[in-house]
Amino acid sequence: MKILSLPGLYNSDAGHWQSVWESHLPDFRRVQQHNWQMPQRNEWVETLAAEISSVDDDIVVVAHSLGCALLAWWLQTQLPGTAEVGKVKAALLVAPPDVARAGFPAPSFSPMPLQRFPFASTVIASDDDPWCELAVAEQWAKAWGSEFHCIGAKGHINSGSGLAQWKPGQKWLSELISKIPSSLCA
Questions:
Q1: Rounded to whole angstroms, how far apart are CA atoms 9 and 90?
Q2: Fewer CB within 10 A of the end CB, N or C, for the chain?
Q3: What is the pLDDT of residues 122-136, one digit of tens each?
Q4: Is the model's pTM score more than 0.85?
């Protein structure tokens, strides 16, 4: 099984839990975008689609911020039941941003797609995230068919949140992986 890491706007720096996980956990691969500063939805979706196509294994996605919207948009562009969609078995979606809010720096990602995900997913949000109100993140989780967890006041759940290895997040990831039928994990 391969874990694809989808950072958000500006990429995840060395102190970000996503970067820490990539350096300490096996089978993590960051999807590298061409322009982290001024993301264009179609370009980011094409990059993700190419990455998923290149993987010859089951995939679990670990997305942060704009990476959550990226996964939702990628799914929106796929035909249901295709082999590419079938590769993705689960997704951990952390701190999805409100892409429709005024002044959001990546407007091409608006509106947020609300198509139900055909795989297990968990949304993790903070009740003081400056990029998304908790109720909005919870609505998206419901629309996507995702389990939802609020971790309290942790900002945008990034390096500024001081989570380092973020053991509770790793636990949620392990729980998601455990929901994948064992015949798929062999």
A1: 22
A2: C
A3: 999 999 999 999 999
A4: yes
